[in-house]
């Protein structure tokens, strides 16, 4: 499974591509950051993020895109920028028919470190270890994008089985009512 992880942000949008399956060693295929100038017009910044993400999609051809689910923060301006960058990532993937998964920050932290309350340094250290890197990816947005991809690789099979079980249960329940 090849996954593009996206840690959305207007100034720094972390991106990372990881390939592998749960229970096997993972492979880093690429990591970086799509940057936009803080003083640029919002529309131009969103276009720059779109162009950057499109390049990553063209180059790495992921099967899935994992994006950090936007959560409420105290700073409304920050959360709005994150939501806008997140929407661009969803748009780029959906336009190509690539399935998108949203993962919460605590879900990603728990998957990668074992604790949903891990700090950025712990996440970076575990990403470094899991991908057998010499040092943590910088900036932290890049490490977070890799953590999102890893989280999706590890959790997607279980989530798919759960969705299939729910669908099967619903089908049986509907069949029982119509009989």
Automatic annotation (TrEMBL):
Membrane-traversing stretches: none
UniProt remark on cofactor binding: Binds 2 Mg(2+) ion per subunit.
UniProt xrefs under InterPro entries: RNaseH-like_sf, RNaseH_sf, X-over_junc_endoDNase_Mg_BS, X-over_junc_endoDNase_RuvC
Cell compartment(s), UniProt: Cytoplasm
Source taxon at top rank: Bacteria
Gene Ontology cellular-component terms listed: cytoplasm; Holliday junction resolvase complex
GO biological process: DNA recombination; DNA repair
Keyword terms, alphabetized: Cytoplasm, DNA damage, DNA recombination, DNA repair, DNA-binding, Endonuclease, Hydrolase, Magnesium, Metal-binding, Nuclease
Residues that, per the record, bind Mg(2+) 2: 68
Cofactor(s) essential for the protein: Mg(2+)
Matching Pfam families: RuvC (PF02075)
PROSITE patterns given in the database record: RUVC (PS01321)
Keyword Lipid metabolism: no
GO terms for MF: crossover junction DNA endonuclease activity; DNA binding; magnesium ion binding
EC numbers, comma separated: 3.1.21.10
Active site residues of this protein: 7, 68, 141
Amino-acid positions noted as binding Mg(2+) 1 in the UniProt annotation, renumbered to this chain: 7, 141
The reaction(s) this protein catalyses: Endonucleolytic cleavage at a junction such as a reciprocal single-stranded crossover between two homologous DNA duplexes (Holliday junction)
Chain's role: The RuvA-RuvB-RuvC complex processes Holliday junction (HJ) DNA during genetic recombination and DNA repair. Endonuclease that resolves HJ intermediates. Cleaves cruciform DNA by making single-stranded nicks across the HJ at symmetrical positions within the homologous arms, yielding a 5'-phosphate and a 3'-hydroxyl group; requires a central core of homology in the junction. The consensus cleavage sequence is 5'-(A/T)TT(C/G)-3'. Cleavage occurs on the 3'-side of the TT dinucleotide at the point of strand exchange.
Subunit structure: Homodimer which binds Holliday junction (HJ) DNA. The HJ becomes 2-fold symmetrical on binding to RuvC with unstacked arms; it has a different conformation from HJ DNA in complex with RuvA. In the full resolvosome a probable DNA-RuvA(4)-RuvB(12)-RuvC(2) complex forms which resolves the HJ.
Cited HAMAP family: RuvC
Protein name, per record: Crossover junction endodeoxyribonuclease RuvC
Protein source organism: Streptomyces griseomycini
């Amino acid at each position: 499974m090849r996954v593009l992880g996206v840690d959305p942000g207007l100034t720094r949008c972390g991106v990372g591509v990881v390939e592998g399956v749960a229970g096997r060693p993972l492979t880093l295929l690429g990591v970086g950051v799509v940057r936009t100038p803080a003083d640029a017009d919002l529309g131009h910044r969103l276009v720059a993020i779109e162009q950057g993400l499109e390049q990553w999609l063209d180059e790495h051809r992921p099967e899935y895109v994992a994006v950090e689910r936007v959560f409420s923060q105290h700073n409304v301006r920050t959360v709005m920028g994150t939501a806008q960058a997140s929407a661009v990532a969803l748009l780029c993937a959906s336009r190509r028919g690539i399935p998108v998964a949203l993962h919460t920050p605590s879900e990603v932290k728990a998957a990668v470190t074992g604790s949903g309350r891990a700090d950025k340094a712990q996440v970076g250290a575990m990403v470094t270890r899991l991908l057998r890197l010499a040092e943590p990816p910088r900036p932290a947005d890049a490490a977070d994008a890799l953590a999102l991809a890893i989280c999706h690789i590890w959790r997607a099979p279980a989530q798919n089985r759960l969705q299939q079980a729910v669908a099967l249960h619903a089908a049986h329940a509907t069949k029982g009512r119509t009989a």
